[in-house]
Design goal:
This is GntR family transcriptional regulator. The protein has helices spanning about 5-25, 40-45, 50-60, 80-105, 110-125, 130-145, 150-165, 175-195, 195-210, and strands at about 35, 65-70, 75. With about 220 residues, it is mostly helical. The protein folds into 2 domains: about 5-75, Winged helix-like DNA-binding domain superfamily/Winged helix DNA-binding domain (Arc Repressor Mutant, subunit A, Orthogonal Bundle), CATH 1.10.10; about 80-210, Four Helix Bundle (Hemerythrin (Met), subunit A) (Up-down Bundle). Strand 2 and strand 3 (about 75) form a beta hairpin.
């Protein structure tokens, strides 16, 4: 590979890493809906150039994760109640469509990993900060999506999860809501263990749409 090609490859790699870091920080709630993203702050936070920051922000605008306000700057996209409901409806369709493949492909090791991640979120729900709760939630769902063989479907789900963000600080107002989120994770794992696609679809639908602390037989609870 020529020196020029190698240099271009490095630039592209750094660009992807910067984009992933900003998206991750938005997704776990470090930057909340409607929060302004000052380019100088991002430049200093991530140790990159202003040009690199601007390029990534423009791409995130195209993905509707960030919005650009002329003469003012960039801010995290804030969905209206109608848009949030519509995104939830689409996510429900896509994520329930992924369920059969996930159930079919999951190995014992995958189930062990998901159980450990569900336990990690349970711990964060009681003892962690809001950021730790969001990070633990994200780790569980990313590991779950790894089991879906349809990578185009995964890309669509991931994009929609990011558009929310998937687990915004405003979603978990009470311990009961955190408990439900944790219970849902265990119920998803139970459905995979039992190879029960319909049960998994039911839990996913409830989890996305926050239907309330409904429980299914065999589910775990965050209560000791």
């Amino acid at each position: 590979m020529s020196e020029a090609a190698e240099s271009l490859k490095n630039v592209d790699s750094e660009h992807v890493q910067l984009s992933e870091r900003i998206v991750r920080d938005i997704n776990i709630g470090k930057y909340g809906p409607g929060e302004w993203l000052k380019q100088i702050d991002l430049e200093q936070r991530y140790g990159v150039t202003r040009i690199a920051v601007r390029r990534v922000l423009d791409e995130l605008v195209a993905k509707r994760l960030v919005e650009h306000i002329p003469n003012r700057g960039y801010r995290v996209y804030a969905l209206s109640p109608t848009q949030r409901r519509e995104v939830s409806e689409i996510r429900t369709l896509l994520e329930t469509a992924a369920a059969p493949g996930i159930v079919e492909r999951a190995t014992e090791k995958d189930i062990e990993d998901l159980t450990a991640l569900a336990e990690g979120f349970k711990e964060a729900a009681y003892n962690g900060t809001i950021l730790e709760q969001n990070e633990a939630n994200l780790r569980f769902h990313l590991r779950l999506l790894e089991l879906c063989a349809n990578k185009s479907l995964v890309e669509l789900i991931t994009e929609l999860r990011q558009r929310g963000p998937a687990a915004p600080v405003t979603r978990w107002h009470t311990v009961a809501q955190l408990e439900k989120a944790s219970n849902d994770h265990f119920l998803i794992v139970d459905a995979i263990k039992n190879r029960d696609v319909e049960a998994m679809k039911t839990v996913i639908t409830s989890h996305i749409n926050d239907k309330g602390p409904e429980r299914m037989a065999g589910g775990s609870s965050v209560k000791n």
